[in-house]
UniProtKB/TrEMBL annotation:
InterPro entries: D-isomer_2-hydroxyacid_DH, D-isomer_2_OHA_DH_cat_dom, D-isomer_DH_NAD-bd, NAD(P)-bd_dom_sf. Belongs to the D-isomer specific 2-hydroxyacid dehydrogenase family. It comes from Salvia splendens. The keyword Oxidoreductase applies. Residues 7-361 form the D-isomer specific 2-hydroxyacid dehydrogenase catalytic domain. Residues 191-330 form the D-isomer specific 2-hydroxyacid dehydrogenase NAD-binding domain. Keywords: NAD, NADP, Oxidoreductase. One of its GO terms (cellular component) is cytosol. It comes from the Eukaryota. This is Glyoxylate reductase. GO terms for molecular function: glyoxylate reductase (NADPH) activity; hydroxypyruvate reductase [NAD(P)H] activity; NAD binding. Gene3D superfamilies: NAD(P)-binding Rossmann-like Domain (3.40.50.720). CDD domains: HPPR.
Length: 362
């Protein structure tokens, strides 16, 4: 029997590529000098396609492959696959959910800390030798959320702090009994206690929420409808969510409805002390508006793993200290990518041996 033809859309993982090569007749689409000629010659032998977050299955390509049976995506996001066309043509679709959730959520928290504590600038400071000339500046009271500023300057807190300090000075209360005072002091932390708002409370959004809770961050979220099984605060609009958040995280799927879900109004609602974290997709955010908000100081900072036209990143961001820019690496660890690759292979094997798909979408 002829080997099954599989079309791989781009270079995504060398282990996956090797395994596909061993098990199938693998066609590497990105290496074809003339893709139209390639399709004319091989379309009839291609029964499966392997896409990723970068390259998937457009309606035109699906139409050009009359024998296509399955698209197995090396990604959780499905925005590069024309799902409607797949449904119409009876083409099955699978993705790689769950296995990357921890890595992506970890990275979202990493971005929050990196932006607020200027971790990248601190690293540059040490490497450049600047530390020998003086300490790094403090990361900064100016970025403290309004809630905590008003909390700490409130009449009751000030009275409590003054009374406690006098009591310590006069040795009326010992230092060891000052747990409450220390607890109050912790509210000063630049990240701990910040209000985290999440757009999309699916698997990844929830994993981010659980991690942020461990930093004492109150969590709220936006999605189309309120989630029944959570006590996190729900807002019915992204603007409302942004107005009530110090950190706004994009963690929803990219669809026509969520394209530019973070627009100028949302950025202005987040405001000059707010931080945007995007581990979703670039087109979730109106990028020119994001750049203007950051350049004009209307937004406090941003941690971005994804961009509208990857790998192009707006150069105006390169000089900004309050921005951390990553090359779409949220799930990019050896461990996770290996499990993702195994899921892609497992889905193909299941399909071609008429078994149930492991992670079916269509
Ligand atoms: O961006 C990564 C993915 O969708 O898996």
């Amino acid at each position: 029997m002829d080997a099954i033809g599989v079309l791989m859309m781009g270079p995504m993982n060398s282990y996956l590529e090797q395994e596909l090569d061993k098990r199938f007749k693998l066609f590497r689409y990105w290496t074809q000098p003339n893709q139209t000629e390639f399709l004319a010659q091989h379309a009839d032998s291609i029964r499966a396609m392997v896409g990723s977050s970068g390259a998937g299955a457009s309606a035109d390509l699906i139409d050009a492959l009359p024998k296509l049976e399955i698209v197995s995506s090396f990604s959780v996001g499905l925005d590069k696959i024309d799902l409607d066309r797949c449904k119409e043509k009876g083409v099955r679709v699978t993705n790689t959910p769950d296995v990357l959730t921890d890595d992506v959520a970890d990275l979202a928290i990493g971005l929050m800390l990196a932006v607020l504590r200027r971790i990248c600038q601190c690293d540059k400071y040490v490497r450049s030798g600047a530390w020998k000339l003086g300490d790094f500046r403090l990361t900064t009271k100016g970025e403290l959320g309004e809630t905590y500023v008003s909390f700490l300057s409130s009449y009751y807190v000030r009275t409590y702090l003054c009374t406690s300090l006098v009591a310590i000075h006069l040795r009326i209360i010992p230092y060891s009994s000052l747990e409450l005072l220390q607890a109050l002091g912790e509210r000063h932390a630049l990240f701990s206690g910040k209000r985290v708002g999440i757009i999309g409370l699916g698997r990844i959004g929830l994993a981010i929420a659980e991690r942020a809770e461990a930093f004492d961050c109150p969590i709220s979220y936006y999605r189309r409808s309120k989630k029944a099984d959570t006590n996190y605060t729900y807002y019915g609009s992204v603007v409302e969510l942004a107005s009530n958040s110090d950190i706004l995280v994009v963690a929803c799927a990219l669809t026509p409805e969520t394209t530019h879900i973070v627009n100028r109004e949302v950025l202005d609602a987040l405001g000059p002390k707010g931080v945007l974290i995007n581990i979703g997709r670039g087109p979730h955010v109106d990028e020119p508006e994001l750049v203007s908000a950051l350049v004009e100081g209307r937004l406090g900072g941003a941690g971005l793993d994804v961009f509208e036209k990857e790998p192009k990143v707006p150069e105006q961001l390169f000089g900004l200290e309050n921005v951390v820019l990553l090359p779409h690496v949220a799930s990019a660890t050896e461990e996770t990518r290996k499990v993702m690759a195994d899921l892609v292979l497992g889905n193909l094997e299941a399909h071609f041996s008429s078994k149930a798909l492991l992670t079916p979408v269509v």
